[in-house]
Write a structure and sequence with these properties.
single chain; 18% helix; alpha+beta; 2 strands; Phenylalanyl-tRNA Synthetase, Chain B, domain 1; 136 residues; globular; 3 helices; two-stranded antiparallel ribbon
C-alpha cells in the first residue's frame, strides 16, 4: 500500500544532497502522476521512508500485476494517501526491495537512472539497474 509521508513541507526541488546513482543532482521522476514518498515528483528519501521509495521506474502491466500479487495494489486509487492509481506507462518511485524482488522474478520494470536516488545502491548493484535503464 502506498505510504503517506509524515511531512508537512513538500518541495518540488531536490536538496543539494539528493543525488542520483551517478552522484549527480537527482532529476524529478514524475509530476503526472505526482510520485515520491513526499509526493513532490522526486524519488527522495529520509528516515521516515521505511520502504526506501528511491527507484524511478516505468510501470508495465506485468509489474503492476506482480506487485498486486504481492499485496501492493498500485492500480487502485487511494485518495486518502494522495495516490491516483497507476497505469502502464506511468513513472513511479518504487521501493528498492520491491524492484529487487521483481528483478528476481524477472518482471522488473525499466528504470530512469538520472531520477533514481543513490540510496538504491545500498540494496541493488548498479549493474542490475543499468541492465534495466531507459533514457529520460
Amino acid at each position: 500500500m502506498p505510504n503517506k509521508p509524515n511531512v508537512q513541507s513538500k518541495s518540488a526541488q531536490p536538496k543539494a544532497f539528493d543525488r542520483n546513482v551517478f552522484g549527480q543532482p537527482l532529476l524529478p521522476c514524475s509530476f503526472e502522476p505526482r510520485t515520491g514518498f513526499f509526493r513532490d515528483g522526486c524519488c527522495k528519501t529520509d528516515q521516515h521512508d521505511h520502504g526506501r521509495h528511491v527507484v524511478c521506474a516505468l510501470m508495465t502491466q506485468e509489474f503492476l500485476s506482480f506487485s498486486k500479487s504481492r499485496g501492493n495494489d498500485l492500480t487502485t486509487a487511494m485518495p486518502q494517501y494522495d495516490f491516483p492509481g497507476l497505469s502502464p506507462g506511468d513513472r513511479w518511485c518504487l521501493c528498492a526491495l520491491r524492484w529487487k524482488e521483481a528483478l528476481d522474478a524477472q518482471v522488473a520494470p525499466k528504470v530512469f537512472l538520472e531520477s533514481t536516488h543513490i540510496k538504491v545502491l545500498d540494496y541493488i548493484a548498479i549493474e542490475s539497474l543499468q541492465a534495466y535503464s531507459v533514457q529520460s
